[in-house]
Design brief:
The protein has 156 residues and is α+β, with helices and mostly antiparallel strands. 37% of the residues lie in helices and 19% in strands. A four-stranded antiparallel sheet has the order 2-3-1-4. Helix 1 packs across helix 2 and helix 2 packs across helix 3. It is elongated, with a radius of gyration of 20 Å.
């Protein structure tokens, strides 16, 4: 059974437009998708209610905020119990340096994307945070040299 929500042509246009610029006024959005402002307002509210559209946020520039070092960290747990995973995931939620976390299949249990100021900042974080966690057996880190592509847009 799929959780996919059926989008018609106008809904797709709305989602594409809002993924590019969530600050569009209702009138501008309506004009760009070829529908009335009232219709677009109802559609946006329905897309929010159905969970297609989430929170409206502004993307921050990590480099301008002094967090230009991106590290991908793979983590292997020493215990695979539900309690151990829940405890580790609570730890993850509480660390602002971790900007993305994925539970993985395969050799590693988690993949983290960590935004830090510099290598020394990461060294402190990994030694005092991730590697100090009682559920962590191993971690392997790779430093991103440059960002080739980044998007928050989901194809619709």
């Amino acid at each position: 059974m799929s959780n996919e929500f059926h989008l018609d042509t106008i809904d797709r246009r709305i989602v594409r437009a809002l993924q590019r610029d969530a600050s569009l006024s209702q009138a501008t959005l309506a004009e760009s998708v070829g529908a009335s402002a009232a219709s677009v307002w109802r559609r946006v509210r329905n897309l929010e209610k159905e969970g297609v559209l989430g929170a409206t946020v502004r993307l921050a520039n990590a480099e301008r905020l002094g967090r230009s070092v991106n590290v991908l960290c793979q983590v292997r747990m020493n215990r695979q119990t539900t309690d151990a995973r829940d405890e580790f995931e609570r730890f993850i939620e509480g660390r602002e340096e971790i900007v993305e976390c994925y539970a993985m299949s395969g050799e590693w249990d988690y993949l983290l994307r960590i935004a830090v100021r510099d290598v020394a900042d990461y060294d402190r974080f990994i030694r005092q945070g991730v590697l100090a966690h009682p559920s962590v057996a191993h971690a392997a880190s790779s430093f991103a040299l440059r960002q080739v592509k980044y998007t928050t847009e989901i194809p619709v």
